[in-house]
Amino acid sequence: MKQSLGAKTLMFPTPVLMIGSYDKNGKPNLMNAAWGGICCSEPPCVTVSVRKSRHTYDAIVERKAFTVGIASEPWIKQADYVGIVSGKDADKFAASGLTPVRSELVDAPYAEEFPVVLECRLLHTLEIGVHTQFIGEILDVKMDAALFGDDGLPDITKIRPLIYDVSRREYRGVGPLLGKAFSVGKDLA
Q: What is the pLDDT of residues 16-45, one digit of tens each?
């Protein structure tokens, strides 16, 4: 029998997303966000939810753009750090040793070290309680060339993305292949 936990923000897993933006002074900033994910296929869109009190909130509203970097295992300390301090108080790029790169397509930076980045223009904004949901149209996805598999597709085992366990407040890695999607369940059809 299942036990009730009440209304909570539990989803397993959640991503570890590095939201890049420029503040009003043009300073590059990164924010660690778990409330986000793909939300539309056509046009390709991603969503991220940010509290109004966060430094990133004003930057996205003002610049109408953001990037979404995929944090990976080798950069766990830097990914955690950008979620601990505020861009109002610190230069997160300088303190973490990450390299800011200006997007060629949108008015936002990303960290060179994170292996995958989505460049997004702000498409919609939705106020939801204490968070605002920003929907960004993905104009381009950039990925390190070494992270493609022999089949020419991105290889998740090479990317090694971080995932977040919201209940325990822990970072985890991706596990082994369990089955091929849209295939393993065919015998039940």
A: 999 999 999 999 999 999 999 999 999 999
